[in-house]
Amino acid sequence: MINVIFIDDHEMVRIGVSAYLSAQADIQVIGEADDGATGVKMALELRPDIILMDLVMKEMDGIEATRLIIEQWPEAKIIIVTSFLDDEKVYPALEAGATSYMLKTSKASEIANAVRSTFHGQIVLEPEVTGKMMAKMRKKSETAAHESLTNREMEILLLMAQGKANQEIADELFIALKTAKVHVSSILSKLGVQDRTQAVIYAFKHSLVE
Q: What is the CATH number of domain 148-205?
């Protein structure tokens, strides 16, 4: 049996989902709480296999409750079940230690399947959440690429965007041609591009040059 507790201040949602889960042959709801503070205490006392957690609650919200549970019990598996897809809810909840993220608009059967999947070590995310995470990771990766350039490398990238060859860059910066080539090679590597043209396109795409 997969032991579950449900922490949610929406009584109708909590009762309805709990009833459906308890009707499953492999799941039983062993506890319910209607606020975050009570939920934290219950989770640490009962140590269920899965914790279903609402986000917006009285006394203590789900993000803080998740953080406190994970701090004291790192192995806890917490599934967020909420109505919110806002960035200020999604990212803090996952960063606090939530394993999966579901919406209350999901069917009870989908929440039951999420319980099973999370119990077996999988991560279950609503498609919208997956899209948000991928977009954030992609943006972070792209931003980190040019932020890793040194001041000298940024200077050389701007000269490359002006169409300067390696020798012209060396002459303008009063450095050896070999040093200029090393810097160019480093720039290409850090930006993850194959040649000077792609590096210049990157610079224009990210508004590094006009």
A: 1.10.10.10
